[in-house]
Amino acid sequence: MLPFSRVAIIGLGLIGSSLARSVRLHMPTVRLVGYDGSAAVRARVDELGLVDDVADTPGAAVIDADLVVLCVPVGQMGAAIEEMRDDLPQGAIVSDVGSVKASVAALAGLLPEGVHFIPAHPVAGTEKSGPDAGFAELFHQRWCILTPLPGTDETAIERLAEFWRRLGSKVETMDAQHHDLVLAVTSHLPHLIAYSIVGTASDLEGVTRSEVIKYSAGGFRDFTRIAASDPQMWRDVFLANKDAVLEVLQRFTEDLTALQRAIRWGDGDTLFNLFTRTRDIRRTIIDAGQDTAAPDFGRDHR
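^ thats the sequence. predicted structure below, dont judge the formating
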């Protein structure tokens, strides 16, 4: 049996539209209803046929849903819950896809009695946005982390876990605060560094007579890909997860200072040892199936 028969998706950008496509592929009998705050996005989703019905309000989208997935930026989730709370059916499960979990878990008090709230984070995405950017395979072989609150119904947790497994994801459960610290290291700080480096390069464009962009090597090019991610979403991520991000950023700053000192003093052993250790981490990521070992990250140069 399918874990859910009626799914509502609130927010139809990259993740929401990918979720709709993936449900269509793996659970074609599930009835899908979608909502997005942009009328243009709603019209495009209707044109693409991504869902069975496009609702005009969040409340209308969730009336008969047994699963509701919030695919809006973290900063908009509270308002979305407020708009739909009176229309949620008893026994429904409300979840999300945000990359910050402690601040999302704090929204549980906005939901009515009898509705299960299980925050979740599919660790997948691209730098693109909008309903045309989505694709059904986005979650395949990627992790989806569930961060249920203490006392959450175990059957509800298992139903949501099975939903993500059917979309091809590997499911893990962890505490919300621990999730936020882990993601600050693996996702949030790398994005912050990318935004900073690309911003610095932009400031130097005049000094270098546009040579920064003209002679972009692979490393800088990949930073620009990360830095092209949705500005509103990442603004909300950094504000919502500021404690963990600042903690990891402080550690990174200290390590960067140590590297600066090694370069200044000609300490090649320190540099070589670090670079060897980090190369081994890259190999571990490839062995875990989280990236490809193909040259140039498998880019098609045709």
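The chain has twelve helices and nine strands.
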